[in-house]
Amino acid sequence: MSLEKSFWIAIRRALKLRCPNSGKGRLFPGYLKIKTACDVCGADNTVYPSDSFPPYLTILVAGHIVVPLFVVTNSHYALPFWLSGVVWLPITLTLCLVLLPFMKCATAELCWAADVIHQDVPR
Fold it and tell me: Quick one: DSSP state of residue 45?
């Protein structure tokens, strides 16, 4: 179990989709559901709030990749509107689906590094 917390460690572990605490156990048993307890260290990974921010990060990164490629391609080739949709929509969708688990993991990792945990507010 690692006691040192830094943003660089968090980013490296996020790229591997690993547990924020140990860096060895897998964070997801499936596509996006975070494991309740790490297989290696037993840490509760559900305490890190990572529900709303990952989609925004995903759209931000995918947009910064797809939009410049779209602009450069359309400035060199005059593609019909329907063909642009047939080409760019699946590319954008695939990129978003690939990036989303990494962004969710990065959000949980950064919350771990900054000691931010989800606390239920009594009602």
Answer: G
